[in-house]
Amino acid sequence: MGKYLWLTILSAGVVCADTGLLSVRSDRAGLVVYLGNDSIGCTPVVNHPVEPGDYWVSIFNPDSTQDRYSVLESGSLGDRLNTLWYLARVGKGTTRVNVRSGETRQLFISLRQAAPFLLGALLGALIAVLACN
Length: 133
Hints:
Strand order of the largest sheet: 3-2-5-6
Distance between the termini: 44 Å
CATH topology: Immunoglobulin-like
CATH superfamily: Carboxypeptidase-like, regulatory domain
Structural class: alpha+beta
Number of helices: 4
Number of strands: 7
CATH class: Mainly Beta
Largest sheet: 4 strands, antiparallel
Shape: globular
């Protein structure tokens, strides 16, 4: 199948049997969307092809310092902890999503609703960081 035909099929919302599609919307357009540690665009993200699996999906205000996000994967323990607190202060919405083969997942993440759940997400991320060391 040609590259352009494949892109046309994906943009039409047709899902290949070994992938799924992910759409991410927010209460604001233009927020940076991360799928795991990879930026996949800005809100709204529509029908992004994804291999089946569990993922963390995060949205960031483009005014925040996005490069700090990569420190969570590659920084020292101290840098990771500082980055977690920094991200908590600038406001971040994060959710876990499971994408299955052949399905389309629709997410709505609001930075306004992120505050009450931020402490739980921060604690979960801290446990994950400590478990990796």
